[in-house]
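Q: What residues go here?
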């Protein structure tokens, strides 16, 4: 290989390298390497460089040679190589100065190595020249394919987008040197995705090339290739995939699945009842598929609402239907999208519609009255069975069931099967002027179908009540009264109702007119005054006067009543006032009332006293029967007036105590009653502590029990540590019996005294009858 000699730049050291790899460089000029690298003068040193191609497979690839001008070829100089990679990547022949690369170089890992060279005299070991620095550059070859940076790629574009719509931009990177030819210059191309997409070769921008419908295909896989060397043959390439999804636009209107729907509804269904569902289908999704249903011509009977979850149309009953009135309906329903953009209105010009037929089902309905309520009038005083009015109800169903009528809780009226209401008692307007009735109608074929209607009966007035005094009059006249003196003003009332205002006429009876000491004057305003008709009245001779006042009304026919006015003669004071007589009567009345109240109070006190006396006597009798009840014997009294449950009953009493060894009745030979009583008596004295005080106490109690004819026939008075088994009569209970009743002998009961006579009669007679 030919070498070019570089002129010595420091003490005559020269660099030799193949002529096609390096050029001579002066200290004042700036040149470009064929690979566009630059050499510059730095601090007076000449920057020298070797070029080594990367990925060289040759071992000990010769890079160049270092040679000193002082080297005369006698091998007295020794060349050394220092710096990064010296000895491992690069080696130098110490005698000749040749530099070799012993490893494969990769520019993408490291593109430049800075080394130092030194020449040493082998005889003296001293440096002949100062160190010199040079550079070894790794030149690029096209050994890296393009790689995409942001994989995986995914993009979304609206469906029906116009041609040229930007979708996404992909970018690849080439690790080769961009300044070394076209190694890193890329071109993009589309391997898969035509004819829907296109890509710009230099930028990697993907655009749509035709309109796409999401409802036909909602996503596309596009394969992109990036190739270096500007796509020329021999260039390296890389590929990537792009998932392009089409987003939905509202380009489809909803369409009914069925052109005809058949629904049914019961005539008994209440308003708001859901009677069926209809369904339209929209190829769009999400908000674009939301729809609204409606009924043409604004039906007054039905309506449709939308279920926002399922997008179904729910047909509901807007007004109740009647099978007898109309048994089927035909309605037309429309559907349209809820959200439509203006630019997409061309897809929604005509709404989809469907026909719905609603069949009304007949139901057994209750009777229907012809009127919502009835108002009747009847005169008072009409006889039993008088006609009041007629109500009428019909069965709205086709079978037209007969109707039975009844009145709820009424003693004054009755109704027959024809709906005729009659009276059952005479009506009196003054007692009740109105009657509110409830008439029920029941189908005979189905008694469960019942309806009711209110009936109002007004009792009309007839003039059946004569007028009478409006109040009780307490009238007095002085003994020395003058003729024509007014002693009382009277008025009247009438319980009848009058169409016109009441007008009353006052007169005295014929007898009083001829013989009365008083006269009456009608004031023509429903009042009249009583006046004296003579002089002088005697309290002793005639203390009270009774006059009959006739009062007539203006009814038709007119009624007249006779009212008695009592006038008392009064010993008036000097001023002619009757107040003193009125006060005396009032005091007498109050005194009488006080006496009545006192009598009632005394009677109540006597009754309560009698009750307390009876209770006290009963309490005292109880204390006599049980004088030692307050003492604590340590045990309760066993009363055997309860039959109990037999030997199996262990709940009422302490069976252990009743069945103690001392009380248990064993089968014994029959003894005389006297011997038995003595034996039990001795046994009772032996129970308990041996103390004279206790024995005395027991004897006293036994004596009291034997001598008291009012004491109930207890079996025994049991007290722990006192009586024990000392009952003279023994136990009458069946608890703990060792033998059956057939083996018992009750003859000894006759010897126990008068208290046991009844028991002796009962059990003795039973035993004899049994024998």
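A:
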């Amino acid at each position: 290989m030919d070498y070019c000699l570089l002129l010595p730049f420091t003490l005559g050291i020269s660099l030799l390298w193949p002529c096609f790899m390096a050029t001579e460089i002066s200290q004042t000029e700036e040149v470009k390497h064929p690979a566009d690298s630059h050499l510059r003068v730095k601090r007076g040193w000449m920057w020298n460089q070797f070029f080594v191609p990367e990925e060289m497979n040759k071992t000990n690839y010769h890079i160049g040679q270092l040679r000193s001008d002082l080297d005369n070829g006698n091998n007295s100089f020794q060349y050394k190589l220092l710096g990064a990679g010296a000895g491992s990547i690069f080696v130098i022949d110490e005698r000749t100065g040749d530099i070799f690369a012993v490893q494969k170089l990769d520019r993408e890992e490291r593109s430049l190595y800075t080394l130092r060279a030194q020449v040493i005299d082998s005889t003296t070991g001293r440096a002949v020249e100062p160190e010199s620095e040079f550079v070894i550059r790794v030149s690029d070859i096209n050994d890296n394919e393009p790689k995409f940076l942001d994989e995986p790629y995914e993009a979304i574009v609206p469906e029906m987008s116009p041609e040229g719509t930007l979708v996404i931009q992909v970018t690849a990177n080439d690790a080769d040197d961009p300044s070394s030819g076209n190694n890193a210059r890329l071109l993009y191309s589309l391997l898969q995705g035509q004819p829907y997409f296109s890509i710009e070769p230099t930028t990697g921008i993907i655009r749509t090339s035709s309109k796409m419908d999401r409802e036909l295909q909602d996503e596309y896989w596009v394969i992109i290739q990036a190739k270096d060397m500007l796509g020329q043959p021999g260039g390296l390439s890389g590929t990537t995939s792009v998932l392009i999804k089409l987003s939905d636009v509202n380009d489809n209107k909803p369409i009914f699945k069925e052109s005809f729907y058949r629904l049914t509804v019961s005539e008994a269904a209440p308003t708001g009842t859901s009677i069926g569902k209809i369904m339209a289908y929209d190829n769009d999704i999400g908000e674009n598929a939301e729809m609204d249903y409606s009924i043409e011509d604004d039906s007054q009977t039905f309506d449709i609402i939308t279920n926002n979850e399922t997008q179904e149309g729910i047909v509901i009953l807007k007004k109740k239907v009647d099978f007898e009135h109309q048994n089927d309906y035909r309605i037309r329903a429309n559907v349209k999208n809820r959200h439509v953009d203006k630019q997409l209105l061309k897809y929604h010009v005509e709404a989809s519609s469907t026909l719905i037929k609603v069949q009304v089902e007949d139901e057994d309905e209750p009777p229907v009255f012809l009127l919502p309520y009835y108002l009747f009038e009847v005169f008072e005083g009409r006889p039993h069975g008088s006609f009041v009015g007629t109500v009428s109800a019909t069965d709205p169903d086709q079978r037209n069931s007969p109707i039975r009528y009844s009145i709820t809780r009424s003693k004054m009226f009755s109704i027959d099967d024809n709906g005729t209401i009659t009276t059952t008692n005479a009506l009196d307007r003054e007692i009740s002027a109105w009657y509110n009735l409830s008439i029920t109608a029941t189908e005979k074929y189905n008694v469960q179908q019942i309806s009711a209607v209110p009936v109002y009966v007004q009792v009309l007035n007839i003039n059946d009540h004569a007028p009478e005094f409006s109040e009780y009059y307490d009238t007095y006249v002085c003994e020395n009264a003058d003729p024509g003196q007014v002693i009382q003003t009277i008025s009247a009332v009438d319980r009848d109702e009058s169409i016109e205002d009441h007008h009353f006429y006052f007169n005295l009876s014929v007898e009083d007119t001829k013989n009365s000491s008083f006269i009456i004057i009608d004031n023509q305003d429903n009042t009249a005054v009583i006046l004296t008709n003579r002089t002088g009245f005697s309290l002793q001779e005639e203390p009270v006067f009774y006059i009959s006042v006739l009062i007539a009304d203006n009814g038709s026919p007119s009624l007249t009543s006779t009212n008695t006015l009592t006038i008392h003669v009064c010993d008036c004071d000097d001023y002619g006032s009757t107040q003193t007589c009125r006060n005396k009567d009032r005091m007498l009345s109050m005194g009488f009332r006080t006496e009545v109240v006192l009598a009632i109070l005394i009677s109540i006190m006597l009754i309560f006293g009698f009750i307390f006396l009876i209770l006290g006597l009963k309490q005292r009798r109880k204390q006599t029967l049980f004088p030692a009840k307050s003492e604590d014997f340590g045990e309760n009294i066993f009363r055997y007036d309860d039959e109990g449950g037999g030997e199996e009953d262990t709940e009422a009493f302490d069976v252990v105590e009743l069945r103690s060894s001392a009380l248990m009745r064993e089968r014994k030979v029959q003894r005389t009653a006297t011997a038995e009583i003595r034996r039990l008596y001795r046994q009772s004295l032996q129970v308990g502590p041996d103390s004279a005080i206790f024995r005395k106490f027991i004897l006293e109690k036994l004596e009291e029990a034997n001598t008291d004819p009012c004491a109930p026939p207890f079996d025994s008075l049991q007290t722990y540590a006192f009586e024990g088994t000392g009952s003279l009569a023994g136990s009458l209970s069946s608890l703990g019996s060792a033998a059956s009743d057939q083996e018992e002998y009750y003859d000894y009961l006759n010897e126990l005294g008068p208290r046991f006579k009844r028991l002796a009669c009962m059990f003795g007679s039973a035993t004899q009858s049994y024998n």
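A: Context that may help when evaluating the design: The radius of gyration is 69 Å. The helical segments are 510-515, 579-625, 655-658, 673-686, 692-707, 757-770.
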